[in-house]
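Work Package 3 (structural annotation) set out to generate three-dimensional models for the target panel prioritized at the project kickoff. During this period the team completed the workflow that converts sequence records into discrete structure tokens, so that structures can be stored uniformly alongside our sequence database. As a representative example, we reproduce one entry of 243 residues exactly as it appears in the project archive.
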Amino acid sequence: MIKGAILLDFSLEKCHFFAMISKKINQKWHMENQFLSLQNWTQEILTMIKKDIKTDHLPSDPVFYRTYFGNRPQNRLSTEEIFAAYEKELLLGNQDLADWVVNRWVFKHGDLYKHFADGLSRVNPNFDEIKELTVEESNQILKGAAESFGAIPTYLFSLLNGVVFPKTVLDSLRKGAEEAKSAQIIQEKEDEEKQSLEKVLAAHKREVARLNDKIEGVQKKYTKDTESLKKQIKSLQQKLVKC
């Protein structure tokens, strides 16, 4: 079962705009607070919906805004401050906010939602009747998901929507997501080092060009001064001959 998920409309006639047509909320899942299980991933989740937070939720929830930011203008708030406030509320169990975050996150992962919905429909079209998936059913649903959508989104989707995978499957998804995150961090570090090296090389190239220009200018001045000196010497020699 997908608990707390949005049902999205993927019809071609609507040009693949995702329409929320209903929302199924399971009370038990509410009480569990999925974000307690995702404390290490909250930043990842919020980053995906950062624009929605800043342009939609923050301006529309004055109580939340005043609680955390007082009268400070929004354009003076850092992303880190905003995310810290949202993370605190989510961990405290603000269910309305949790529903909003999950809905927006799922909305931005429409293809992944469709993948899960299609797979679960083959098990039982009535998602609410699925109490727990078997390992075999889980593997069928997850087949190709990590490869197509990434290990991290696949894991986050499973927890955010309360997909009833067995613990062994969830543990495997978590491990895959953690490995992907580690690889991502390493890649980002390598990219930063590469960019840093490229900046150093570019700065060195500019400095070499500047020095070459300076040397060229000195050489031109030297040549000009030498020619002038030669003319002066020649003029003096001519005067001496006349004397």
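The chain has two domains: 6-165, 188-243.
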